[in-house]
Amino acid sequence: MGRWQPGARGRLSAAALKLYSERGFDETTVGDIAERAGVTERTFFRYFADKREVLFGTSALLQSTVIEAIAAADPSSSPLETAMVGMDEAAAMVGESHEHGRRRAAVIAGHSGLEERELLKMARIAQAVAGALRDRGASASGARLAADLAVLAFTTGWNRWATATDPDDLRAVVRATYDELREAVSTA
């Protein structure tokens, strides 16, 4: 390896996503990722515990961003609207690069273990959202329903956005999905 270059985490993430897309998740090794990023395997492990963490390493940050947004939301908002404030912030955080989102979604969809991990991540976020809503005075069942519906709107919107060829801003897609959900529930 040559002289140290800044941005190793970003290079590792980009290299991993490209390799997962080209070769498949199981066929890509940590050594492959490190080599493509121009770093050593040791450097890889400074940033990620394993090759799955490249896809899920920001989960804790995403969850804390959502919870902080909920805590700062208008106190007069309904639990569902409050939960959607958190989902708006999640969309702002992860919706910066459609190409990255598209590749990430395709890699996860192609591997059942990664799909399971993604579902678990979103279930944990829903659980945290429900807790934050309870902290704001929502009933336990109301908080859980609001959290689950908001996460459903987010994940459905995310999937639409990630698979679209010319998508709108992720926040707009998530909000449109939420509006569809509200309409479906109110006419049911």
From TrEMBL:
Pfam families: TetR_N
Gene3D superfamilies: Tetracycline Repressor, domain 2
InterPro entries: DNA-bd_HTH_TetR-type_CS, Homeodomain-like_sf, HTH-type_TetR-like_transc_reg, HTH_TetR
Keyword Cell membrane recorded: no
Signal peptide residue numbers: none
DNA-binding region listed in the record: 29-48
Coiled-coil residues: none
GO MF terms held by the record: DNA-binding transcription factor activity; transcription cis-regulatory region binding
Source species, domain of life: Bacteria
Keywords, sorted A to Z: DNA-binding, Transcription, Transcription regulation
Span of domain HTH tetR-type: 6-66
Name by which UniProt lists this protein: Transcriptional regulator, TetR family
Origin species: Rathayibacter oskolensis
